Sequence to fold (307 residues):
Amino acid sequence: MLNKYLDIAPEVKAALDEGRPVVALESTIISHGMPYPQNVETALKVEEIIRECGAVPATIAIIGGRLKAGLSHEEIDYLGKTGLAVTKASRRDLPILVAKGVDGATTVATTMMIAAMAGISVFATGGIGGVHRGAEVTMDISADLEELAETPVMVVCAGAKSILDLGLTLEYLETKGVTVLGYGTEELPAFYTRKSGFGVDYRMDTAEEIAKAFHVKRALGLRGGMLVTNPIPEEYSMDADVINTAIEKAVAEAEEQGIHGKATTPFLLAKIKEITGGSSLDSNIQLVFNNARLAAAAAVELAKLSK
Ligand code: PSU
Ligand code: MN
Fold:
């Protein structure tokens, strides 16, 4: 029985019922990850790309306390315009927002949860949350990592920003049994750049291989997701020194101002944007498009395997 708080958009429901490919998309990236109107333009364009690649997009959010798998253009526009005033909803926020009947922008963790409830297996985003620098003292570790350990959704991202401690993030994922795949690379991409200095668990060169790995994981009865890391296209990648200097500055400023808890990631993202001007936003948008294409291709392959 489907969750009584869940609304699946008719187009998404039809695709799922017929075993056609569907790709989930998150909404924190819309409300907290990019400024208006680029956030709305990007969200709509990502949906278009997924359609062109033969899958049905399902942008996920909480609207008026309803868990939504598939949003209308009006709902996407509303989330984009409302921006930071929408509650950023991670796992611990979900029951409260539903109980109160209010809105929430879903992070990677809650997008995975709602995707799984709806029966969606593949999810495309920009970057995931992870183990923050200094987490050995602050214990700031994103709930996204626990969700990857528990919830059966493949997440396609461009790696993680080095606002995180990438080495500790990989260690955490290993402990939790989350496989980290590199699409066409042995090296974990670092969001704005194609390289991080850290290795992925396995390199895979086709969407078919990626889909098969996830299909077999499920067939083995193993719980949890899988992380597919897709390097930003060369022509949009940033100069490592430029971006790393901006990140260092942002992290130092967050520490100075005593930013903590759920505010940390949005604060750092906004600071980096401010320091680098528009260039990091352009890269950010392009890597999301790139991830949408790979996620759609993987969803198409997974649908064939699931027949
Ligand atoms: N990292 C990014 N861009 C983002 C996020 C993370 O490069 O937009 C968002 C995602 O929604 C992610 C969330 O799930 O931030 C993680 O927040 P926290 O670190 O508070 O768990
Ligand atoms: Mn955190």
In short: The longest helix spans residues 279-306.
